[in-house]
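2024-03-11 09:14:02 DEBUG pipeline.ingest accepted 1 chain
2024-03-11 09:14:02 DEBUG pipeline.ingest length=193
2024-03-11 09:14:03 DEBUG pipeline.predict start
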Amino acid sequence: GGKMDADASTRGWVLGWLDPRCCTAAREYLRHGSPVQAAQVLLESPDGDHRSVRLLQLRVSRELVEMAARDFRAGRISAAHDAIELAGRCGALTGEARSLRDEIAKAQVNLKLRNDFAHQQVRRAVECASEGRLQTAFRLLEQLPDEGDVRQLRALLEERELRFRHHLAEARRALGDGDAAAAQYKIGERRVG
């Protein structure tokens, strides 16, 4: 048994020694958990038809499919798409990997539709706010996650609403004091703000 193991080990070393340089680099990337870099090295190699390169591409493809599945489960649709596409360039995708690729493609379409809807809602909210219809703008934004541009727009709308309420309260006080001119001035300030 020992001599056979030694022969197999020597044969592996000799075969590794005869492999193109890209294989060594790709194996190193894989050892460090970087299948994307391993794939790039192998795909850019002029030795792409070499048996060792092809075998490594298949291994890298499997690792990229696993990466795509993890990214997909974590909701990182774009990263999952990139990983599954690169896996497909390294080797033919199996039935399970093809199903994952299809799920990722559907998720990308849904994400694009959600993003388009969000963009449209923000645009409409801005239009409503510029027309002074703050409550309508707030209702449009209620349907969207409170992040990024939506959060900033909500903050601006809340600030405008506070200014409006402040000017309205001042106008009411002025009317209560019998000063119609001051009330008219406060209403004019509200329109400018």
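2024-03-11 09:14:41 DEBUG pipeline.report Residues 116 and 143 are 13 Å apart (CA to CA).
2024-03-11 09:14:41 DEBUG pipeline.predict end
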